[in-house]
Amino acid sequence: MKLINARWMRGGTSKCWVFEATELGAAGFTADTVLPRIFGSPDIRQLDGVGGATSTTSKALILTRENGAVSDVSFTFAQVGIEEATVDWGSNCGNCSAAVGLYAIEEGWVPRGDAVTEVRTFNTNTGQMIIQTIPTPGGQLPDDPQATIPGARFPGHRVALGFLEPEGRTTGSLLPSGQTRTRLAYGAGKTALVSMVDAGAPIVMIDAQSFGLDAQDFLSWTAAANTRLPELEEIRRAASVAMGLADSPEAAERAIPKVGLVSESPDEEADLQVLMMSMGKPHPAMPITGSVGVTVAARTAGTVVAEKISYALPRELRLRIPVGVLVTLTDDSSLGQTVGVHRTARTLADARLPISNGELERASRAMRQEVVL
Amino acid sequence: MKLINARWMRGGTSKCWVFEATELGAAGFTADTVLPRIFGSPDIRQLDGVGGATSTTSKALILTRENGAVSDVSFTFAQVGIEEATVDWGSNCGNCSAAVGLYAIEEGWVPRGDAVTEVRTFNTNTGQMIIQTIPTPGGQLPDDPQATIPGARFPGHRVALGFLEPEGRTTGSLLPSGQTRTRLAYGAGKTALVSMVDAGAPIVMIDAQSFGLDAQDFLSWTAAANTRLPELEEIRRAASVAMGLADSPEAAERAIPKVGLVSESPDEEADLQVLMMSMGKPHPAMPITGSVGVTVAARTAGTVVAEKISYALPRELRLRIPVGVLVTLTDDSSLGQTVGVHRTARTLADARLPISNGELERASRAMRQEVVL
């Protein structure tokens, strides 16, 4: 029987199992075998494992302590399959990311500051440095942290996630189409006014007014978007070609670029109004990488996002989204400019997960058979 | 910060968090406060806790080691609310029960036998002794146990759950209506041929043929039942009155008695065919207490269940249910006759759950406010 040390943490609005790479390595099988079996996959209920049987609760992080020269921790995000014994290594999860800094502080991997502690984390899925800053008043993590975010019912440690110089990480260029704004043709003779930006993730932001939406009635956008899903998808696919991400609209990837709608805010409670689409549907909140993209776009003169704000841009940008107001932050760190958001994080359980060699051997064999078939 | 020791276990087709009573007691708040907060309730996603956000994964067991004179372990089952910060102590969970014996063996609370180890467990919710028998070849729990049950994708330790003398525990009588079989009037002038039995839980079993169902076409029963839900509920409520459980059909409780349909098996792969209803709908499997009731009914001459079997009743009774064949066991233990089923169990995680006094104080205050409102 092996015992694998792991920590169950809430990061933002996700639940994530956190492993040190050495723990998984000692299991003697690859993470592609070990993680699904530990999570209880393949099984729609993940009954025999620690997975939560939903996409936001079937997530893992693999951490490696670094020597501190460039980063303090490098981490790899794993989306663990539920009905299939698979692991998707293709992207990072902004919410789970927020657990990495807290873990490093809890483990004493970084010296604690008197007010806040900075943890330099490197995400290997995306090649992105994320500077995390967590309050440690008096050099201690508070026993009963009180920070809150929309979408999480209980408080936790406040984690400022700063994406270091996120521009152009996917395409090599902040403005991959070469233009700050474009009247993009789509469908049969229609056009939309958009800006295509690569920061955090590639996004195409549509001027909501040019799409026929009313800034005075943000609450109606979700219903309106739902009636015009094919058009939004056509714009997304046209943008994919314009950004050099695909050779034709038909060849566009499902998740890249993201598409959203933006307008000015009619009141002083927000700086912008944003409705992002996710997997073909209006998102009630916002992917963290999408909020990074919108923030960089707002700071890039000439985009349809920047033109919505007539005043000096604050460091804290307030984005109205369906579930509330999301605040993004632009900061200067010792390493360069960062753009990010506040999340919260909390440790739910410190655990040892027992797993037998026999279980792992069967899981490994089942995966090989799947590949052969 | 408190650290509460807990073990996450699969019991049958449920996931259960197992606590020793002393651990919860040391938290300084009642289990009604501590369990919902640890589980992350109230929250439809149980995002900030260890609950699984479904009824079968928001369950806890509280164990007390006994001196062994009468039982080895007493245990209390807790159904932890998800959208409400509540705990329901009203019933036991047969699946979670299967984790109790394994826990006691893992902790060394009972001497291990050379082939199997018997653990005498007492459920405090129902006043029911459940004798558990688990293989321990060579005096050891196998490292890689291989027992399987329908509904669980991965194997575990085989646990024989024997309900000790389960007759009449709710009503005081095995046949609370005084009759082995009854033509029960329901609705507007209709009747059904039923037997009403109290064993494990009060049940009313309907002769499927008298209800117009064909034993040759068991697969059609679920669809047929779905089109006649009001009738089945009328029968259940009429039985509730006949069993002395309610003064009128309108006053019948939602979960007591359970109602089901029974016929002979047209082939030799099962002894009976059974479709049980649960919360008003056909159940794809079967509540464990219901399977105890059906088994006792099969051993009670004159019931509509017993008459379906024309041969000498085996100790292992095979019940065809929609998902497969469930085997129940009737045994003589040193304490008396037991009726029960095989389940499997496995430890998923050995954990410490951190929780602050502040969190518990707020949870306690929120509960008091709810009561006042």
Question: Can you put this structure into words, describing what you see?
Answer:
The structure is a homodimer of 373-residue chains. The model of chain A has no long low-confidence stretch (mean pLDDT 94). In chain A, helix 2 crosses helix 7. Chain A has two domains: 193 residues, Diaminopimelate Epimerase, Chain A, domain 1 (Roll), CATH 3.10.310.10; 148 residues, Diaminopimelate Epimerase, Chain A, domain 1, CATH 3.10.310. The first copy, chain A, starts with a strand and ends with a helix. Chain A is of the alpha+beta class. Chain A is globular and about 65 Å long. The first copy, chain A, has seven helices and 17 strands. In chain A, strand 6 and strand 7 form a beta hairpin. An eight-stranded mixed β-barrel of chain A has the order 1-2-3-4-6-7-8-17, surrounded by four helices. Strand 17 of chain A pairs antiparallel with strand 17 of chain B, so a sheet runs across the interface.
Largest sheet of chain A: 8 strands, mixed, barrel
Indicate the proportion of strand residues of chain A. 35-45%
Q: Greatest chain-chain interface?
A: A-B, 39 and 39 residues
Q: Can you tell me the CATH topology of the largest domain in chain A?
A: Diaminopimelate Epimerase, Chain A, domain 1
Shape of chain A: globular
CATH class bucket of the largest domain in chain A: Alpha Beta
How many helices of chain A in DSSP terms? 7
What oligomeric state do the depicted chains represent?
homodimer
Helix-strand makeup class of chain A: alpha+beta
Strand order of the largest sheet of chain A: 1-2-3-4-6-7-8-17
In terms of per-residue confidence, which ranges of chain A show pLDDT below 50 for 5 or more consecutive residues? none
Order of helices and strands of chain A: EEHHEEEHEEEEEEHHEEEHEEEH
- Mean of residue pLDDT of chain A? 94
- CATH superfamily descriptor of the largest domain in chain A: Diaminopimelate Epimerase, Chain A, domain 1
Range of helix content of chain A:
10-25%
What's the architecture of the largest domain in chain A in CATH terms? Roll
